[in-house]
């Protein structure tokens, strides 16, 4: 990729950032917590590029950032409790994990195939201006290479991701400096990540204690559950040809009934992965079997293989 553009914090910078995002490119932008690495949450390829730019070895679910409560309600189902919490704490450093609306239109890479979605309405004026100008949800993990410290200045973003993303919108230092608090709502609210809003404040608002960590419906680190993403059909990896009764998913030179990427492109493979798994599951049927061609263990291939090993794990 070409040089990463630094965009200034004015109307033209915001307009340029929104145009790049609409074209499927990645733009880092400031929030009140840390800089986020934004991509169109409805665009599979853009979201796959987020994982690639960060060098993330796993497809962890991402937070969908929205401009207002209406934008959030397009993505998630809000019950009265969720609406009350949103009204009390948004905009601000609080992320809510809520049931995903099936018609939300977000890439399954954003939710990592889950039926819940993490939604956040940031308070930073530039983030809000960008979300309004873009006009849709932005998936945005912290804008740092995987395993490194989260960036709180545009310079930090460039130090880690220069040349790997289209632009950074420079809004100066972030005020909060730690990521948002993640709260999973429902009959049993849980604190999934401590962050910018203290847990005690949320406990007070909810009128109940907040256990820390995940549950079956809102796992803390969903990717850790070995067979969580498993399709109904049994899965075999490293296949060069289909055995009797198998649906073969190809990659590169291995032609299948379906293919992750005929050209062996790992970004394309990541972008199509969750769709293909569903499609293959339907084709195979409950008693059927799915075989996957080998995917190289480099770049996004690591995250793809991590996901496939979970799908193939004994259950
Ligand atoms: O402050 C922040 O939240 C920053 C700024 C950029 O907004 N963003 C951020 O995103 O920290 P990220 O991707 O680094 O954090 C996402 C976290 C992960 O730990 C993930 O496990 C959790 O959110 N998460 C996302 N969707 C989830 C879901 N459906 N269920 C449970 N946890 C979820
Ligand atoms: Mg992070």
Q: How would you describe the overall organization of this protein?
A:
The protein is an alpha/beta fold and 315 residues long. It has two domains: 5-206, DHBP synthase, CATH 3.90.870.10; 234-312, no CATH class. Helix content is 32%, strand content 17%. It is built from ten helices and 14 strands. It has helices spanning 11-22, 44-54, 69-75, 80-89, 108-111, 125-134, 154-161, 199-206, 266-284, 300-312, and strands spanning 5-7, 27-30, 35-40, 63-65, 94-99, 116-120, 138-139, 167-169, 181-184, 190-193, 234-236, 246-250, 258-259, 289-292. Helix 1 crosses helix 6 (125-134). The longest helix has 19 residues, at 266-284. It starts with a strand and ends with a helix. The relative contact order is 0.17. Mean pLDDT is 91; it is low at 216-228. The chain binds threonylcarbamoyladenylate and magnesium ion (MG).
